[in-house]
Amino acid sequence: LTMANFISRVSRLSFEYSLKYMAASAGAHLVDGFAKHRADEIIRRSKKTVSGSKNPVDGLVKFLNDEGYAANVHPKAIGLELCQHHCPIAHVAAEYPQLCEEETAAFSKILGTHVQRLATIAHGDGVCTTFIPQLGSKGKKIEKTQTSNRKQSKR
């Protein structure tokens, strides 16, 4: 067990038990609030990367990779498929799905269009998959991304 793995395990346990304590002592609404706050932080922290990218999808993929999600995007006939091959919070999100729901809402805000979560690691799927339709909320076509299927984070 390396020091990094030890710290990662302690962090995951702290996160998990903190949410369990919040839910047990103050109610599920506090966990809902935490999930919303986490999503707001994703939006806030991703702004620089997303705004500095050629298009918002590539920026979001880069941000997610920097955060350890091993993300990439695949073009589909009527949109894009965002895949996250790793989820640092999957073990907790399995018990608290509102974390995934709020993350999906954050992606929608970041990209300026409706997105649809198709699968989650927390639900037992092999990959978290989010569909991004071809048209943005303002009717602007989302440009094809520069991210290919083969580019993934090495985390």
Please tell me about this protein's structure.
The protein is α+β, with helices and mostly antiparallel strands and 155 residues long. The chain has helices at 3-26, 28-51, 56-66, 90-93, 98-111; strands at 71-76, 79-84, 116-119, 128-133. A hairpin with a 2-residue loop joins strand 1 and strand 2 (79-84). The longest helix is centred in the first third of the chain and has 24 residues, at 3-26. The protein starts with a helix and ends in a 22-residue tail after the last strand.
Short description:
The protein is an alpha+beta fold.
Question: What descriptive keywords fit this protein?
Answer:
globular; 14% strand; 155 residues; single chain; disordered C terminus; alpha+beta
Could you say which overall geometry the principal axes of the C-alpha atoms support? globular
Radius of gyration, CA atoms, in whole angstroms:
16 Å
Element order, helices and strands? HHHEEHHEE
| Fraction of residues in helix | 40-55%
Structural class: alpha+beta
Cα end-to-end separation: 17 Å
Number of strands: 4
List the helices and strands and how they pair.
Layout: H1 3-26, H2 28-51, H3 56-66, E1 71-76, E2 79-84, H4 90-93, H5 98-111, E3 116-119, E4 128-133
Antiparallel strand pairs: 1-2, 2-4, 3-4
Helix pairs in contact: 1-2, 2-3, 2-5
